[in-house]
Amino acid sequence: MGRYANIAFISYCHADMGVAEWLQRRLEAFRLPTDIHNEVDAQERYLRPVFRDKSDLNTGVLPVELRRNIEESKYLILICSKNSARSQWVSDETKAFVELGRVERIIPVMITDGETPPNELLPAYLREYFAEYPESELLGVDINADGREKALMRVVSRMIDVEFDTLWQRHKRQRRVKIAATAAAACVAAGLAYLFALPVWVSVTVVPEVSKLPAGDDIAVTINGGEHTVPLTDAPDAVEVRLPGYSRFNKMRVQVASKFFETVDTVLPTGYGLQRNVEIPIRRDDSFAVFSGRVYDDAMAPIEGVSVTVGGDSAVTDSAGRFEITLPLAEQLPEQMIVLKKSGYTGVCRLDETPGRDLRFIMHAK
Fold first, then answer.
1. In angstroms, rounded to a whole number, what is the distance separating the alpha carbons of residues 15 and 290?
2. Which phi and psi (to 5°) does residue 287 adopt?
3. Distance in angstroms (rounded) separating the CA atoms of residues 49 and 362
4. Looking at the chain, which terminus has fewer C-beta neighbours within 10 angstroms, N or C?
5. Residues 6 or more apart from 162 whose CB is under 8 A from it?
6. How big is the chain by its Cα radius of gyration, in Å?
7. Residues 8-49: pLDDT tens digits?
8. Which residues contact 262 (CB under 8 A, 6 or more apart)?
């Protein structure tokens, strides 16, 4: 920055403090483009410091300290409004800067109202100065017409001596990149929150195999070690559990058990959604399917060749008197009629035989 302690001095009246504070904050946060040559010291990466007079005096002589800061400032940024146009203090600060021979380094920031001519927004000293030196002029920045972002870039372009269009196009590109980066970060954060913070609701519905057989006991459903029980009906209620969000990255173990049904033990993906609906079919076991056993004579010797009929299925005993009949589900009942026949023996007929694997029958010789 050379011999200047401040890159700029902002002169304003108290009524325009909001604009002055915003401008100081944004200027000092502005990072200088490294690929643009300018007069700013190569060691400086920001437009700092920007001095803002916090006094609000209307009359009197400028304090020595304030005058020193004006002298040590490369630019004078004037916040020009109907308020500042009436401020003697702003006029005196402007006069002090002009007397240093730096009138061309004054940057007027105009707060226009659509009615007051721009030249009437200037402080009294500048109006008198331009009346005396009509050939002189300053290019103002209209903050209302341009909007704050574009007005900021116009001020910066004056301070670093770079064409406004070049700086503005670069600023827009940087904003797009920043917006995209912010959006990407927000998406990542939202994704992580979704995956880890939001729980997964798992709904397990057990679908029993349809039959004419007894229902048996309630259904025991275990999900990742958590045990649940639902009544066994043709359409049992679903079991709903809440799993922590990190479960999405793991599989869940589901176990289903009920009397007269085959036990199910399966591992399923939890899924990445908020809700996971699972149907677990359970098949009937062979509790009512198998009729097997032996046939003996009066002396308890096995009889070979006995015809054994259960429902519509038949079998013949082997040399050890053994037989086995397995009924399909559609033919299974809690009790069945069983008929045994062999030439030379009195037949056997039981109307209410229950299924089993160790049935015993004795046939009497004629």
1. 98
2. -55, -35
3. 113
4. C
5. 33, 36, 38, 156
6. 48
7. 999 999 999 999 999 999 999 988 776 654 444 545 678 889
8. 282, 283, 284, 285
